[in-house]
Amino acid sequence: MEALKQKIIANGRVLPGNVLKVDSFINQQIDVELMTAIGQEFAKRFANQQIDRILTIESSGIAPAIMAAQAMKVPLVFARKRKSLTLSADIYATKLFSYTTQQYTDVMVDKRFIQPGENVLVIDDFLANGQAVEGLIDILEQAQATLAGVGIVIEKSFQPGRQTIEDKGFQVESLVKIASLSDNQVRFAD
Ligand code: 5GP
């Protein structure tokens, strides 16, 4: 997606630890025009599928997911992060390792918001090692819902997330693929 690439070139910053900071247009300040186009692009890429719902994770997945949900005219639910979970029968819960905080986080979705048999599209802002997406897949399995595919705004293709998800047999659509962030330079894969 060319507009997103250009925005990354102009405003993205490479931080130590292979982290791309995009807080001026995706993660804190949001470029709504770009985000609208991102939502429409996801709708186009998954147009061949009957999607019932979109699932993402707070907080940075919500903006792209909400624009995709609007473009696809489907409901959106996001998994909440909790420091500690009081186990409840009314939630689906899983534990995942956060790439950016380097800590384990409990995440949960209220059982009312995913129905068994639904075909659910997972959306997130970044794909690195695949932990966030794997956590969401775990929640969908608990809910006996089907994963329709995974939509990612920025894929770091030099990390193993895509391979992990494809090995499970799922479709991954990334709007931009980054081949390397070494020497503080963003190099695109395509
Ligand atoms: P994964 O779980 O695939 O290892 O990492 C994906 C999650 O970590 C995303 O939800 C995203 O919020 C965060 N993340 C991973 N890499 C980056 C990055 O380079 N920049 C930013 N801003 N977030 C990242």
From TrEMBL:
Key words, A-Z: Cytoplasm, Glycosyltransferase, Purine salvage, Transferase
A Pfam family assignment: Pribosyltran
Gene3D superfamilies membership: 3.40.50.2020
Binding, 5-phospho-alpha-D-ribose 1-diphosphate: 128-132
Protein name from the UniProt record: Xanthine phosphoribosyltransferase
PANTHER family: HYPOXANTHINE/GUANINE PHOSPHORIBOSYLTRANSFERASE (PTHR43864), XANTHINE PHOSPHORIBOSYLTRANSFERASE (PTHR43864:SF1)
Subcellular location(s) of the protein: Cytoplasm
EC number: 2.4.2.22
Positions of the Phosphoribosyltransferase domain: 33-161
Signal peptide: none
Organism lineage string: Bacteria, Bacillati, Bacillota, Bacilli, Lactobacillales
Residues annotated for xanthine binding in this entry: 20, 27, 156
Superkingdom field: Bacteria
Family: Belongs to the purine/pyrimidine phosphoribosyltransferase family. Xpt subfamily.
GO MF terms, alphabetically ordered: xanthine phosphoribosyltransferase activity
Gene Ontology CC, one term: cytoplasm
Organism: Periweissella fabalis
Pathway(s) this gene product operates in, as recorded in its UniProt entry: Purine metabolism; XMP biosynthesis via salvage pathway; XMP from xanthine: step 1/1
GO biological process, alphabetically ordered: purine ribonucleoside salvage; xanthine metabolic process; XMP salvage
Function: Converts the preformed base xanthine, a product of nucleic acid breakdown, to xanthosine 5'-monophosphate (XMP), so it can be reused for RNA or DNA synthesis.
Keyword Glycosyltransferase in annotation: yes
Encoding gene, per UniProt annotation: xpt
HAMAP family: XPRTase (MF_01184)
Reactions that this protein is recorded to catalyse: XMP + diphosphate = xanthine + 5-phospho-alpha-D-ribose 1-diphosphate
Xref: InterPro entries: PRTase-like (IPR029057), PRTase_dom (IPR000836), Pur/Pyrimidine_PRTase (IPR050118), Xanthine_PRibTrfase (IPR010079)
Keyword tRNA processing: no
Recorded coiled-coil stretches: none
Quaternary organization: Homodimer.
